[in-house]
Each structure stands twice: as C-alpha cells, then as structure tokens.
C-alpha cells in the first residue's frame, strides 16, 4: 500500500519504527533480465563440445557476396538432387566483414545450433554444418528438425534482408533448392525466430494449452483427479523471479520427459490465496515448459483461460528489476531465464496444510509433495536438459547465447556495421549518404549526425547510429538506391509480440513505427528537455532513514525528460480511456499503477521509431530535479509546487494540522478541496522542468528499498534487483511541504492505483 511520509520530530520517529517493520524481503530468484557477459566474450564460457560438422569438398573463401553464393552453389551441387529442396543456409559473412573474430563467430554458430534444435520435434540433436573455411556459412537439412519447405517459405516472408542477385550462381542455387531465398542471415534468425510469431509458427505451438497437452499426450484433468503424487506433483510459493504474487507449479509425466505448468496470479488475496485455496484457486495466467523429443525445452504463455499469448500480461508476470522492457516474451524470455533447465524453488503450501485440520488435508498433501520429492524431479529434468544442450555445442549454465545475441542484434548500427551488412566499404557508404538525398530520406543521415566530444568539449569523431528497426524497414530502399540487387520485400511485417491486456492480446500489426501526430501535437515542440551527464550528491543526512547515506552518483549517459508530468489528454490519446479521479485534460494523469504506466510506455514505443520511452531511474529523477544545484529551488516552495498548503480553496498550514492532530489531516484536505492543478502553472526549475515538486508523486523505474543507498552503485545506479514496491518521487497536492523536497523517497505497490500518483516520461534516441 502507498505509504504517506510523516513529518516533524514525532513523525520521523514513527517513520523510523514503521520502516524497520516494513523492510521488504529480498527475492532470491535470479532475474530473467540478468545481463551477463557481452556476446563477443561468451565463448570463454562455451566448451568446444562436439566438433562442428564440415561438409566434405566445400572449402572456399567467403568474404564477399558472390563468394558466399559460389560456396553455397558448390555445396548444393555436392548433395543429391532429390535432397537439394531440403537444404537451407545461414550466413555470418557480414559479421566477419564488420570485424567479428573467431570466438564471436563461434558464439553465433553455437546459438544457431541451440535455437534450431529448440525449434525441432525430431528425436535427435543435429548441428548445422559449416561449408567454408572461415565458418561463416552453415547448412541445415530441414528434415533434421521436422521442418518442411513450406515452413521455410513462411519464415522468409518476414525476412527484411532478401536481395535477389541477377547472377547465374544465384539462379543455380534458387533452382536447385527450389526456393527463392534459401540463404538467411544467422543473426537475424537468432533474434527473430526465438520470438513470437515465428517461435510459435516454427515450433508449431497450438493456440490453447489443451491442444498442446493433446499433442504431447498429457491428460491434465485425469492426472489431478486420479493420480496425484504418481503422474502429477505440485508446489506453491509466494514469491518468484517474475511475479510478486503467489505462484503454483505442477509437473506432469509426459512421453518426452516432463510437462510443467505454472499458475500465476494478479493478487495474493481471496480466491488467489494459494494457502487457503490450494486446489480450487482462480489464476490470472499460466506459463508452460515442456520437454521436446530431443531433450530441449519448449515454452508457452497463456491467459487465465489457457489461450496462447505472445507475451505475459504485465499485471501478472514481468521482469523484476530495472529493464528497458519489463515484458515476458514467450520463447526468448523463457530461454534467458531457464538457462539450466528447470529452476529450483521452495514450496510454501505443504507446511501450511500439514499444520491445518482441513477436511481435504490428505488430498492436498498427496498432490503437494515433499520438498525432497519435488527436488528429485527438478534435478532429473535439469539433467535431461543439460545433456541435450551440450549435444548442441553449448553448455547449460548461467547466461544464454540466444538471448544475449538477440539483444546484440537489436543494438543501433554504426556506419561500419551498416556498410558490412551492405557488403561495401564504410567510406563508400559514407560518401553515398552524403551525396544522395534518397539515402538521407531513408534515415541513413543519422549515421553522420551524432557528435562524440572529449573531456574539453571538442568533437573527436562522428559515430552516428541507425536504429535496427529503421534499418530493417529501409533496407529495401537503400539496396535499390545503391544498385545492390532486387530487394525481396517481406510480405509479413509483425515481428514484435502483441501487447496483452487483462482480457487478452492486442495485436500490433506493423513494426514500422512512426510518430503519432496526435501525441506529438499534445506534447508540443520542446516538450522533452535534454539532461547532460554529470555528478551530484544524492540523498540527505538530515531527514528520513531511507535517504541515507549521502553518496556521490555519476550519470554517464545523457537522456531527455519530460518538461511536464503526463497529462490526462496525452494518456487518453494513447490509451483510449482516462482513469483519473480529478478530471481535466491538462491535469496530470493519476490513479494509474506502475504496470499500467508500462503499458502506456509500450504503446508509445510501438508508434515512434525515433525514441525509446521509459520511466526515469530514481537517480536520474533526483539529478534532474536538482538541476545542477545542491538546493531544491531558488526561491519559496509556493512558487514551484502545488502541495497541501496551497492546492485547495483556502490556505492551509498542513504541517501544523499533522503535528497537532494527525487523525484530522485527511478530513482537512478534503474539506478544503485540495486537488491536482494543470501542469506548468508554477515556476520551473533551472533546467526548465515543471512540477518536479508536488501536484502528483511520480513513478520511477526502480524497486524501492529502505537500505538501498548503502549499497548503491556510484555510476548509473539502477536500483535494487527486486522488491515489492516501486519508487515514487516528488510529493503531491495532498502532502505538506517538508515532503516535497528533492531527496524524499517513497514506495508504492506497482499494482496499486492512487489518486496522488502520476508520472513523467524519460526517453533516449533509438
């Protein structure tokens, strides 16, 4: 529940006692969003495993496009004519041209091997074969993964980099493979085939959990009714790595190994209280892990009714801790979390049932087995997965190559990487962009625009970037202007999972994000203020315990932050409804949970290719509030903030009301009609930011922890890795002036709405 800050001496004492009693339990589960080693260094942790297969008689150079084609054509001719329609190829040549060395190339080969086998219904693990000396071209036989040419055709309909050459070599390959586009880039496939919709289409995951169970030969209802403890085992716990609410997992015996179902909840109360309702609970969503015939794992996310989702509902499951994107995506997010197979967990339900006199006690205990018994099943399934992973040439352990390389693929492109992907020298691409307005209109002028300065402010070099989504969208136009061949335009474009709501997914039909003119008009020119890098003293030694110790923080990345709090007009334009209690288009939106703010942010990011929108971190917020000074404001608080003293019809002394009779405080501000006010009516701080004090508390990205400052990073802090509350900052219209200071910290449950809480956006260029 949202915690009101207390004032004055007695208030500080009460707060100290309250916060000591409210210390939040640390979640021991590792976050899905853990960032381990950079992809280029991952091979230090990848054993050599089995030797990478080399097709005999196909050792050729592959440093240019025509050499790639020649290598593929030679390899295809070495295969029997009846087998050629099943041969397909992946290339890493563009990465080698961009400077990738053998360790990094080996990581891509390992990730590709793991992914294609994770998308397979065959019994055996089959490693893609390299067909060239450099190991940059790999061949697969579709039949080894229970794929067919029609499935490959479906994949290539999403492919943005298809270029048809007029050469006879290309024609020979296309004719032999009976496929217009038999060669795909491996990095694109790793990044996109691990996500819906391709993950669902390639692995052929049905649309409901019931259909999946029928496909796997699992009878869930029979197991639960007739064979608990023999064919199904269950455990329940109150905290997990992707939810702050209750969670139940159950393992069913399955022909290929195991079928695990997780039941997730949007609350821990009433019919979602698993200790009171261990058998007949009301779940809000589900997650499934199932053994594939080859020992690897498949995944599925569902809503409460068991219908397949592209991503989890953020009010049910999400990445805990700071992350640019908190959503759980089927396939990729699951791979990044379950790097060792099944994760161990501790049951909280059996103990509660053992010490009860429930009439169904024996029935419940038969299903909720002992910790040691469930631990044996987890160990067995983990070992099966480990053996399969090592057969792919990878290792089972912390860190997942597929998810790390997928993240690397989506990084913005610098000019040298863009040139390598086009198969041309960087200097040639730079000259072409400078001299051709069509390339500039396609967005490549961004490669020349960003300035990098040294410590004295002098420009050192130009290292502009192009966002990956823009590059994919404009690749056809660029190849046409440069005369690189006929671009095979993708027929299907939605390669970002749908945005779910509590009632089901909402489809996003195009990844070609464009600015939303209505939102742009509402925000207006100059809405965002660029905040420079710098250092400041964070916290206070004079006030509450959670503001200590004062510590120096360095922010090394510039960012932009909204000049105003997000208004109801902007929220309603983006989300289609207005949840606020105090209504008015220019009033700050309030009564929105942290999870709902994440949905708003996702909608903004889906409609704008220029920026990545997010909440500011707590450190960014305080740095922006201080505006390069050590004080709150250069003047009286009344000039800068709406708070309890001045937000109603008459002037109040809210601090005195609290000190003299705290029980009457709420009635006093209601009687005086204290409320929010239109944004931007008070004076801004020195960086031009309005309402950084008062009006509404503002959600930040970080988890809240009373003791976090004692262990905070000195550089770009991101907050604790987990928690139960999210940080809010700045005070509100209902609070006294003391708690509108720049250092005040507060926490709110991310699922709860409050008429005192809104937010402002931060953003960075894509």
Question: Care to describe what's here?
Answer:
The protein is α+β, with helices and mostly antiparallel strands. It has 25 helices and 28 strands. The strands form 9 sheets. Strands 6-7-8-9-10-11 form a 6-stranded antiparallel sheet, sandwiched between helices. The chain is globular and about 90 Å long.
What key phrases describe this protein's structure?
766 residues, alpha+beta, six-stranded antiparallel β-sheet, four-stranded mixed β-sheet, 25 helices, 30% helix, globular, disordered N terminus
Helix content range of the residues, please? 25-40%
End-to-end C-alpha gap: 36 Å
Figure out the total of helices. Answer: 25
Low-confidence segments:
1-64, 496-513
The shape, in one word, is: globular
Q: What's the alpha carbon Rg, rounded to whole Å? A: 28 Å
| Class of secondary structure makeup | alpha+beta
Overall mean pLDDT stands at 83
State the total count of DSSP E strands: 28
> Strand order across the biggest sheet?
6-7-8-9-10-11
Biggest sheet: strands, sense, closure?
6 strands, antiparallel
Share of β-strand residues: 15-25%
């Amino acid at each position: 529940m949202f915690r009101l800050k207390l004032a004055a001496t007695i208030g500080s004492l009460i707060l100290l006692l309250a916060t000591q009693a409210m210390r939040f339990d640390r979640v021991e589960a590792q976050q899905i969003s853990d960032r381990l080693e950079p992809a280029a260094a991952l091979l230090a942790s990848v054993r050599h495993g089995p030797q990478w297969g080399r097709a005999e008689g196909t050792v050729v150079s592959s440093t240019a496009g025509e050499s790639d084609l020649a290598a593929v054509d030679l390899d295809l001719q070495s295969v029997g004519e009846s087998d050629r329609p099943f041969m397909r190829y992946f290339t890493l040549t563009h990465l080698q041209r961009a400077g990738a060395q053998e360790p990094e190339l080996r990581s891509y080969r390992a990730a590709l091997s793991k992914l294609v086998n994770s998308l397979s219904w065959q019994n055996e693990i089959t490693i893609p074969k390299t067909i060239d000396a450099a190991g940059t071209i790999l061949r697969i036989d579709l039949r080894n993964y229970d794929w067919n040419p029609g499935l490959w055709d479906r994949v290539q309909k999403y492919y943005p980099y298809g270029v048809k050459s007029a050469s006879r070599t290309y024609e020979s390959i296309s004719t032999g493979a009976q496929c217009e586009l038999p060669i795909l880039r491996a990095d694109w496939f790793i990044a996109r085939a691990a996500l819906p919709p391709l993950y669902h289409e390639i692995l052929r995951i049905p649309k409901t959990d019931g259909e999946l169970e029928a496909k796997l030969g699992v009878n869930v209802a029979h197991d639960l009714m007739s064979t608990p403890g023999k064919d199904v085992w269950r455990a329940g716990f109150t905290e997990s790595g992707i939810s702050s609410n209750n969670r139940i997992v159950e393992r069913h015996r399955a022909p290929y190994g195991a079928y695990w179902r997780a039941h997730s909840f949007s609350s821990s109360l009433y019919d979602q209280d698993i200790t009171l309702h261990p058998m007949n609970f009301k779940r809000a969503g589900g997650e499934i892990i199932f053994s594939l015939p080859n020992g690897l794992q498949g995944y599925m996310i569902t809503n409460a009714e068991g219908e397949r989702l592209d991503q989890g509902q953020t009010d049910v499951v999400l990445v805990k801790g700071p992350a640019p994107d908190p959503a759980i995506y089927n396939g990729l997010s699951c791979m990044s979390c379950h790097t060792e197979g099944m994760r161990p967990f501790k049951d909280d339900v059996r103990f509660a049932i053992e010490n009860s006199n429930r009439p169904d006690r024996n029935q419940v205990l038969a299903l909720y087995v002992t910790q040691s018994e469930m631990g044996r099943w987890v160990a067995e399934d983990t070992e099966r997965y480990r053996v399969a992973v090592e057969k792919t040439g990878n290792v089972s352990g912390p860190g997942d190559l597929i998810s790390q390389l997928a993240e690397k693929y989506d990084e913005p492109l610098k000019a040298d990487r863009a040139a390598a992907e086009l198969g041309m020298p960087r200097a040639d691409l730079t000259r072409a962009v400078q001299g051709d307005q069509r390339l500039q209109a396609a967005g490549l002028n961004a490669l020349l625009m960003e300035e990098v300065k040294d410590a004295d402010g002098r420009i050192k070099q130009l290292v502009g970037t192009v966002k990956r989504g823009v590059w994919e969208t404009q690749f056809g136009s660029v190849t046409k202007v440069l005369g690189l061949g006929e671009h095979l335009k993708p027929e299907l474009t939605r390669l970002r999972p749908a945005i779910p709501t509590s009632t089901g997914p909402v489809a996003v039909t195009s990844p070609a994000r464009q600015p939303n003119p209505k939102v742009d008009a509402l925000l207006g020119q100059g809405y965002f203020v660029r905040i420079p890098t710098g250092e400041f003293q964070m916290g206070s030694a004079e006030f509450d315990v959670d503001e200590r110790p004062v510590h120096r923080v360095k922010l090394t990345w510039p960012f932009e932050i909204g000049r105003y709090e997000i208004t109801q007009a902007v929220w309603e334009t983006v989300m289609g409804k207005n949840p606020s209690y105090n209504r008015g288009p220019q009033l700050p939106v309030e009564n929105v949970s942290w999870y709902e703010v994440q949905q708003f942010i996702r909608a903004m990011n889906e409609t704008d290719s220029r920026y990545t929108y997010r909440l500011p971190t707590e450190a960014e917020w305080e740095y922006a509030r201080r505006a390069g000074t050590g004080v709150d404001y250069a003047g009286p608080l009344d000039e800068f903030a709406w708070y309890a003293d001045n937000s109603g019809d008459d002037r109040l002394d809210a601090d005195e009301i609290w000190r003299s009779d705290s029980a009457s405080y709420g009635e006093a501000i209601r009687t005086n009609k204290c409320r929010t006010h239109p944004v931007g009516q008070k004076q801004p701080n020195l960086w031009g930011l309005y309402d950084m004090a008062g009006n509404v508390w503002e959600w930040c990205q970080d988890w809240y922890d009373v003791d976090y400052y004692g262990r905070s990073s000195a550089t770009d802090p991101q907050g604790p890795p987990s928690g139960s509350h999210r940080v809010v900052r700045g005070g509100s219209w209902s609070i006294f002036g003391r708690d509108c200071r720049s250092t005040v910290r507060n926490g709110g449950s991310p699922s709860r709405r409050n008429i005192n809480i809104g937010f402002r956006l931060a953003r960075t260029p894509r």
